[in-house]
What we know:
Layout: H1 11-14, H2 19-34, H3 39-59, H4 70-82, H5 87-106, H6 135-148, H7 151-163, H8 167-171, E1 178-179, E2 184-189, E3 195-199, H9 202-218, H10 240-254, H11 261-274, H12 279-285, H13 291-297, H14 303-311
Antiparallel strand pairs: 1-2, 2-3
Helix pairs in contact: 2-3, 3-5, 6-7, 6-10, 7-9, 7-11, 12-13
Amino acid sequence: MRSKRIELHDEAKLSQVNEENLKLLQRYKVDMVMRNLSEGTQRHYILDLQQWFIWNLENQGNKSVREMNDDDITEFLYFCKSEGNNSERIKTRIAGISAFFKFLRKKRLIVENPTEFIDRPKRGMPVAVQTFLTPEQVALMREKLIDTQDIQLRLFAMLSLSTMARAQAIASIKWNQIDIEKKCIYGVLEKEGKIVDLYFSDEVKYLLVQLKLLRESRRHSDYGWLFYTGRCTENKHINTSTLNSWCKKIGQLIGVPTLHCHDFRHSGATILKNAGMPLEDVSVLLNHESTQTTKKFYIKEDTARISSLKGRYNI
């Protein structure tokens, strides 16, 4: 169930927003561009902040954000919740506001980030169904994708599962970043402007070679992008909505119609952890700053294995 849309944007009201807030937002826009955040991320953050500023104008005396505390922000979030935003939408609003305050703190414009004192919602219908593919479903996916004879689609699925990279990172990969022999993709742009390296399997290595040979035989110009459609240009890679449409196609092949790009990330992490890889190593591959994030959001424990282990203790 998607969250109810709240219509707050109004250009006339936006022009009346606290002048300092607008100036700080402009500086934040520059910062996001310099950190190479995706256009989609920038757009969502800016729109959410503008909505917050307009609500502040109408309900809190048009305060400067530098004067706001966690109670002020909670009032806005409570309004959004009462207007129909579900818990997942509230989380994204908090994330956007928090990122803005982190920027202000980095510039020494505030002493502390007030969102650190706000509890994230724990209940509510998620925006998308979270799917953890089992090893059996991965085997079925592999079989069905071989049958399609679509090498690009097959590579997308297995590379996403193997590297556990986010969709935006997968979309932006270029051939010149890939060392096929070392099974590594260097200097990939990830969330929040991070530059990371991705590691892939022997199966992916084989598929990369096959796709490269196919492109060369057909003499197609892919502008250097690994994943390519006719809409790509030298300066425009494949978009994530196309990748999600590929996920839907793959999901239909294996009876998982809700499959989306991020599911490969969760699934890869869970399969590695349940196969015996230490949580710390899985967390490093996911480029997480904390194993707590990995454990809480990315790992689905093998309950059958845990139940079997418990049986040994006769309790």
